[in-house]
Amino acid sequence: MAACRRIPKSIFGSIFSRSSTGFQSSSSFGPSSSLISRRGIASRLYIAGLSFYTTEKALLDAFSQYGQVVEANVLMDKVSSRSKGFGFVTYASTDEAEKAIAEMDGKTLHGRIITVELAKPRTQRNTGVPIARGPPEPPIEQQ
């Protein structure tokens, strides 16, 4: 563990990625998606309308025919452990992503019509707990 303390957090963060089930090692078939997205050489697609039975492997197989897929994610519900009905696919280039959007948008995948579009960048959310300070003070009347 002492060796991990000497590794800069930026390097250590790209080795492990946080998922709904805990820490998992990054994929072994290419550079981590966080590294690629920081460099701006990848295009991430948002896929909506997925079947609850669609797995990451099935999503990877369906979209890999349009280019080199770096990563495929299906977001899972923590309580029921089944798909939330949407996911993300990351391509190595913008041209491949545009080709996948043109071909797969409105198509059927596992019995459901899916919507494919470019993913919007994540916004920073305040994850802290709001501070409760009691009821507001009454306005002060000026004389």
From TrEMBL:
CDD domains: RRM2_NsCP33_like. Gene3D superfamilies: 3.30.70.330. Residues 43-121 form the RRM domain. The keyword RNA-binding applies. The keyword RNA-binding applies. Keywords: RNA-binding. Residues 133-143 have a biased composition (Pro residues). Residues 124-143 are annotated as: Disordered. It holds the Pfam family RRM_1. InterPro entries: Nucleotide-bd_a/b_plait_sf (IPR012677), RBD_domain_sf (IPR035979), RRM2_NsCP33-like (IPR048289), RRM_dom (IPR000504), SLIRP/GR-RBP-like (IPR052462). SMART domains: RRM. One of its GO terms (molecular function) is RNA binding. This is RRM domain-containing protein. It comes from Deinandra increscens subsp. villosa. The lineage of its organism: Eukaryota, Viridiplantae, Streptophyta, Embryophyta, Tracheophyta.
